[in-house]
Amino acid sequence: MIDHLAGKMDRITPTYAVIDCNGVGYITHISLHTYTKIKDATTVKILTHLAIREDAHVLYGFADEHERELFRLLISVSGIGSATARMILSSLNPVEIEKAIAVGDLLTLKKIKGIGAKSAERIIVDLKDKVGKTGFTTDMEAHTLGGNSEALLALVALGFTKLAVEKVLLKVRQEHGSDLKVEEIIKHALKYL
Asked: Whole-prediction pTM value?
């Protein structure tokens, strides 16, 4: 398995990038989310997922681990292939996808090209307990949670869903203030979880 590619950006479009790694150009299929993050780079390191099909070996590239893990979760759902997973990641950013799955937002998922009601329901049912357990936090979420980001990661590592932990951490912050130590935040949060 190829974990990542690091090299010179040879060519990039909204759907694929060609990464020159010591004279060998690798075509890597990317989402719009990844495109916006790497489009101006001259040298790049992108994480990859190799999809082996009967007729081809296809590399998919990701700007960060969060997006790659979400892609792998999506393709684990019956009926969702690599191309559909890439379409989902191009339509919404990873945080929006996780929130739609966690709260069971069928309408948001059905708006994505190629996703019907049955596919959206299957994604929610199969992934509801899996999303949010990765422990990834965007910069915006970390700012919103204040000093709670370490507590968030710790509680997610204990097996609680990210969405549930975020709600509890906001409640702890409102009731006990934002100047608590990480240990105190976790102790208070565990009372509510």
From this structure: 0.69
